[in-house]
């Protein structure tokens, strides 16, 4: 089938030869494409949107063949959530709780610990003796032990593939989105359990934590002088072994127990000798628990970067570990068998994922516990400490060494769990209490009910799918329409009907209607013509409307479209004719005035007018595309003015300016008037607006007057204009005892007028009242006007002041008087006097504003090491000085102002807001250019310096501890202080000197985590909260 645009043109090709009044029913049917041939499946690969008779590729392919039950979209098989035979139950990861899940699985497979926990008393009996609503209300454990009991019971006998540990995690008060240290969690939870279980009467329960996990060692110090031995005993739940610089686990254990010499400044004070003596100190293992937890210290502190990092060196460990050489008491079995390996996946010390590889004590098989995913490990190819999806080592990573049988190597092993090996290995039956089994049975019943519901829903979906399959197979064959009885229906609805994942909605044809409540001709491309038989079934089953039958073909719209298209075609010819006529000269005694803008845009205005007429009460036409507009037309600003209204003045008459209009011939005007019959008509003899002529003459007179005023003021106040030979308050001139003051704003506005009198209005008055308080007193001291407030005032010579009083109205005289008070001392007095009360209030408010800003902009400039930071003012001015384009242009127009007497360029003073200029230390807001070494930051006054350093680290890749910040020559070093307290104000410039930049993104991520406050398990149930 031909492309959509070709079908569109073919449907309306007849309009060039048929007048609107000659449109027949045959033309209407051609416009609605009734007679287009339907597409063949062998030739049409996808649906032809321009052909309403094409019913190929609308989603029918999946329904035409035979389908089995599994091909229908349905709910996932509930059996996929069922626990498989001879496997364990997984735990759902709630966000960042993988460290909890791994340790729970390790403890669950400790049979002795699980059995003892089951024997712990529970509040279940109190729950059963309640008010009889236990059938409606689920049992909720009250203590951590009860939560752990119920969790272990579910892990043991649940029918689910995985269970949700939310209740247990919530009881501990853990943050599910915060990754925590697995070792710290293990230690704290075991301590909590030991404290709780020690209160039980049953000795097997009371001592289970100590028996299983708790060992004892002593710090032994031996005096070299007298041989006295000092011993300090301590309990441990795990041994923290340093693996840096070691390749074998036994080497790390030996280092842990290595003897240390106390000599020199580190001598030991011996109570027996009553003096400092050389001594030796070591750790001596007194007793080992049944379950020995070995913590591999793979996270170390890097002194160069100042944060933790993860070691990536391999450490080898054996499945059998003989601890007898390391224990003081050689009596007893000290051979341990590896029972679990905890793995930390990830390169960062502050993030990653925990996985546990645990040995089933009953079957001896190894399983990998990755949250809810549990897999049995291949015994023949057993590699402990290695995760299956661990990436291959790069060139910078060490290669994995070869391991002997019974030995494993890992660079991600985080904790090793060894179980004491005994001569006899009787099977320990774990007996679950009846109340726990009852709770598990209840949960299993709920799970089975859910599985049954899901199965029934799947069955219903399959039944619906089969019914839909039969419906589609029956109706699709009857969809093609004949020439007599047919209806239109939207392609989108048909596609939704054939889409099994979307419920079929009632048919809604309202969006496709024209203003006559019939099918809009422009909507045919998104409609399909179907048989009346199929339409009857659709409306009876799904409802909706209105129905678009053969009577829905709108002849009125087709006639209107014919008229518009013929006008468009005529417009193209007239456009060429008008362009040719405009090239010919116009006789002096004929013609009409037409606006130049109207001549440029008249064709576009006609097209827009035709499009509005063709849109049928606001409905957009798809055929009115921009391809009808020639690309050579320039896109002018869209104006609301109609044709030839651009030469109307404000009085409705012909405008005075001839540059905006053009004289065209009578023939040209006649052509244009056919399209714009109501356009303003101005023959060549039409006079311009008399009122506008008067205003123009007055404007010319005013311009002459303004030029004269500007020239006079320029000559009278040349030094003030050129900013040369100015009095300075910091160094009072010797030849005068009085200096007058005017606002800087007045001088800047006056300079604009003098340099460009035709653009700016003249200045009539000097408003000195802006420098006064409401009481009429001066707001600024002599000292402040000489320093920080010098940017808002301009000193004036006495002779200049006389000229200013003649040229301008002065509302208030402000002057500074120099008087002698004896002994050569000089006093400066202001007239009017300073208002001390208002001045003090102003300064207090200024300080409050500086310390209360939010989301203000400051700048940080990174400098080289060789720059002297004793004074940052020079660099600040250099980085911030810039002129606006307007100021540059003004300087070029006035050569007298642009240069100093010595030929060097003078820096232009730029007017700023008064309140901003008065803030000490604030940079000029005219800074526009920033290099790569300078960046802007949004900060608040209550933000700490440490938080700013984190922002700087993200922008410059410089760690906070490598940043040296300077403000106005002073070092910013107190990280806990707020920016307001440190004197950081909006628009200020802070200088950054960096020791070293960070290029490793993983290292930058570690520092980002380090900069966050480490609260650990603060506020959780593990610490008694």
UniProtKB/TrEMBL annotation:
<feature type="region of interest" description="Disordered">
    <location>
        <begin position="877"/>
        <end position="905"/>
    </location>
</feature>
<dbReference type="GO" id="GO:0005634">
    <property type="term" value="C:nucleus"/>
</dbReference>
<keyword id="KW-0833">Ubl conjugation pathway</keyword>
<keyword id="KW-0645">Protease</keyword>
<protein>
    <recommendedName>
        <fullName>Ubiquitin carboxyl-terminal hydrolase 48</fullName>
        <ecNumber>3.4.19.12</ecNumber>
    </recommendedName>
</protein>
<dbReference type="GO" id="GO:0006508">
    <property type="term" value="P:proteolysis"/>
</dbReference>
<dbReference type="InterPro" id="IPR044743">
    <property type="entry name" value="Ubl_USP48"/>
</dbReference>
<dbReference type="InterPro" id="IPR006615">
    <property type="entry name" value="Pept_C19_DUSP"/>
</dbReference>
<dbReference type="GO" id="GO:0004843">
    <property type="term" value="F:cysteine-type deubiquitinase activity"/>
</dbReference>
<dbReference type="InterPro" id="IPR050164">
    <property type="entry name" value="Peptidase_C19"/>
</dbReference>
<keyword id="KW-0677">Repeat</keyword>
<dbReference type="GO" id="GO:0005829">
    <property type="term" value="C:cytosol"/>
</dbReference>
<dbReference type="Pfam" id="PF00443">
    <property type="entry name" value="UCH"/>
</dbReference>
<dbReference type="Pfam" id="PF06337">
    <property type="entry name" value="DUSP"/>
</dbReference>
<feature type="domain" description="USP">
    <location>
        <begin position="89"/>
        <end position="421"/>
    </location>
</feature>
<feature type="compositionally biased region" description="Polar residues">
    <location>
        <begin position="617"/>
        <end position="628"/>
    </location>
</feature>
<dbReference type="GO" id="GO:0016579">
    <property type="term" value="P:protein deubiquitination"/>
</dbReference>
<dbReference type="InterPro" id="IPR028889">
    <property type="entry name" value="USP"/>
</dbReference>
<dbReference type="InterPro" id="IPR000626">
    <property type="entry name" value="Ubiquitin-like_dom"/>
</dbReference>
<dbReference type="InterPro" id="IPR033841">
    <property type="entry name" value="Pep_USP48"/>
</dbReference>
<feature type="region of interest" description="Disordered">
    <location>
        <begin position="610"/>
        <end position="635"/>
    </location>
</feature>
<keyword id="KW-0963">Cytoplasm</keyword>
<dbReference type="InterPro" id="IPR018200">
    <property type="entry name" value="USP_CS"/>
</dbReference>
<feature type="domain" description="DUSP">
    <location>
        <begin position="460"/>
        <end position="554"/>
    </location>
</feature>
<dbReference type="InterPro" id="IPR001394">
    <property type="entry name" value="Peptidase_C19_UCH"/>
</dbReference>
<keyword id="KW-0539">Nucleus</keyword>
<dbReference type="InterPro" id="IPR038765">
    <property type="entry name" value="Papain-like_cys_pep_sf"/>
</dbReference>
<feature type="compositionally biased region" description="Basic and acidic residues">
    <location>
        <begin position="883"/>
        <end position="895"/>
    </location>
</feature>
<dbReference type="InterPro" id="IPR035927">
    <property type="entry name" value="DUSP-like_sf"/>
</dbReference>
<comment type="similarity">
    <text>Belongs to the peptidase C19 family.</text>
</comment>
<keyword id="KW-0378">Hydrolase</keyword>
<dbReference type="InterPro" id="IPR029071">
    <property type="entry name" value="Ubiquitin-like_domsf"/>
</dbReference>
<keyword id="KW-0788">Thiol protease</keyword>
<dbReference type="GO" id="GO:0004197">
    <property type="term" value="F:cysteine-type endopeptidase activity"/>
</dbReference>
<comment type="subunit">
    <text>Interacts with TRAF2 and RELA. Interacts with GPS1.</text>
</comment>
<feature type="domain" description="Ubiquitin-like">
    <location>
        <begin position="922"/>
        <end position="992"/>
    </location>
</feature>
